[in-house]
Amino acid sequence: MPKKKLHPLPNTAFQILLALADEDLHGYGIMRQVESQTQGKIRLGPGTLYSSLQSLLEEGLIAEGNHSESMDGNDERRRYYHLTSIGRKLACTEADRLAALLREARKKNILRGEYV
Amino acid sequence: MSNLFRSWWIHLYPRSFREQYEEEMLLLFREQMRDEVEFSGKLRIQLGLLRDLVTTLPRVYSEVLSRNRRAKLVEGDGQAFRLLDDRGPGLWIYTTSTVATLLIFQSIKSMHPCPAFAHLGISGLMWLQIKGHELIHFFVR
């Protein structure tokens, strides 16, 4: 039985799952989405991105989709990825865990800013 | 320069990983470079790529090797050939750099015969030899 590599879920993996929550994306799309959702704080390199995608695929958290609907000229060489139901469930669990952590941080007055 | 840069870094990854993702990784890098108009931005991407190589290569190699070991256990000795195939230039870079470090250490030690340095040199050399042996053993066994 292979060792579970994504327990606990690494930050990069969680960011990729979040990026795929709304739509199917290809590698570059995921990279741009992660950069945007972290306000430029996380910039995934090609090695980090594709090794994480490989792990997520092996764990069944994401799957490759077809890309016939896309219009880009480079799309023949691209694979699109989408979130599986297990991946969505795990992302929800991780979000709940982080929310609980934030609640605790707020209770202890160590949370900066009022926007959360 | 970008083309030259693009062509070498991808070959540091193991063959099985490249077979799956080479084209997409190259495309991604090309698109990153295309979307960045300023020289400083392009430089930042290239430096980011170097950092990415340093952090991901050991993990990718380790995953490929452990996957191959599992496959070998399941399928028998025939998988040993696949194990050999997966050793890319990255492995040779690690091995060569370890041997080069040992040689440099040995030459510095011989050029500085001061007792304190000699002591440090011998301990350091022994430590490096042990680590180098562990590393080589890890990949070659």
How would you summarize the topology of this molecule?
The complex is a heterodimer of chains A (116) and B (141).
Chain A: H1 11-19, E1 25-26, H2 27-37, H3 46-58, E2 62-65, E3 80-83, H4 85-107
Antiparallel strand pairs in A: 1-3, 2-3
Helix pairs in contact in A: 1-2
Chain B: H1 2-9, H2 15-35, H3 39-75, H4 80-85, H5 89-111, H6 115-140
Describe the structure.
The complex is a heterodimer of chains A (116) and B (141). Chain A has 116 residues and is mainly alpha-helical. Chain A has one domain: Arc Repressor Mutant, subunit A. Chain A contains four helices and three strands. Chain A has helices at residues 11-19, 27-37, 46-58, 85-107, and strands at 25-26, 62-65, 80-83. Chain A has a three-stranded antiparallel sheet with strand order 1-3-2. In chain A, α1 (11-19) packs across α2 (27-37). The longest helix of chain A is centred in the C-terminal third of the chain and has 23 residues, at 85-107. The radius of gyration of chain A is 16 Å and the shape is globular. The model of chain A has no long low-confidence stretch (mean pLDDT 86). Chain B has 141 residues and is mainly alpha-helical. Chain B has two domains: 1-87, no CATH class; 90-141. Chain B is built from six helices and no strands. Chain B has helices spanning 2-9, 15-35, 39-75, 80-85, 89-111, 115-140. The A-B interface holds A 2, 5, 26-28, 31, 43, 45-51, 53-55, 74, 77-79 and B 13, 17, 20-21, 23-25, 27-29, 31-32, 48-49, 51-53, 55-57, 59-60, 63, 70.
